[in-house]
């Protein structure tokens, strides 16, 4: 009996540095487990930001963490930044300490209401669960800002400007931001939505250009098979490769401004640059900005808060939101 129990706890799949899946069904998340509660952050570093957790859909346990600058006056209407955290679709959450810290700073510096989405994660919930949750969170946020009585949320109703909506995310969250934006291009029923800008920070994207070797492509393929739950999943999947022939035309992207940030030592950087170039040559009529930080690693701005390079990237993000 003991040997049988031990066998069921053997590792079935290991994707470092993220998770181990055991034959028993147990999931071990190796990183991204440090959390912080919603709170009032009145430190001088952020200028004062209140946060709270709100459940959107009890059936799927979908929730968001809202951030509101405490300096917002009674009649102030602020940009809405809908943020999707990274973590390979597998780890991290809206309550992760590093995301809580970052969203506090972003809300304060940009003078925005931030909506950090706690979407369902792989492997318990394979894609498209994260995309569906993120879409539902966007629709909820816009509805609440428009005063929809079926979606009451006073912070968004009083302070959210539904004509100034930004989608933002890092890594897998940047992938989500792109895909949610493309869904908005063809969707109906979102009242008065206007996506002013999309911010893709070190995006988890792939394409057929700039070959990076069979080992790396095999790694991405294995990850994508796990994320989708499809053994036949391919790296030219439109969700992963928005520049592939199978993907909707980038010219449909429903915004006039995009910011793509890449880090020079990140193996995903060439894919972010390729996305930016493809967008510019797609016939899309907007303005795309590329922020390329040499010598830095993937999501350095989250892992090294307060450094000069992190502050410079935050300044670019804040300027992008202010300039819309």
Describe the structure.
The chain has 324 residues and is an alpha/beta fold. It has one domain (11-323): Alpha/Beta hydrolase fold, catalytic domain (Rossmann fold, 3-Layer(aba) Sandwich), CATH 3.40.50. The protein has nine helices and twelve strands. It has helices at residues 2-8, 97-110, 129-145, 154-159, 172-186, 214-228, 269-280, 300-303, 308-322; strands at 11-15, 19-22, 27-29, 40-41, 49-57, 62-69, 78-84, 113-118, 160-170, 195-201, 257-263, 287-293. The protein has a nine-stranded mixed sheet, sandwiched between helices. A three-stranded antiparallel sheet has the order 1-2-3, with no helix packed on it. Helix 2 (97-110) links the parallel strand 7 (78-84) and strand 8 (113-118). Helix 3 (129-145) packs across helix 5 (172-186). The mean pLDDT is 92.
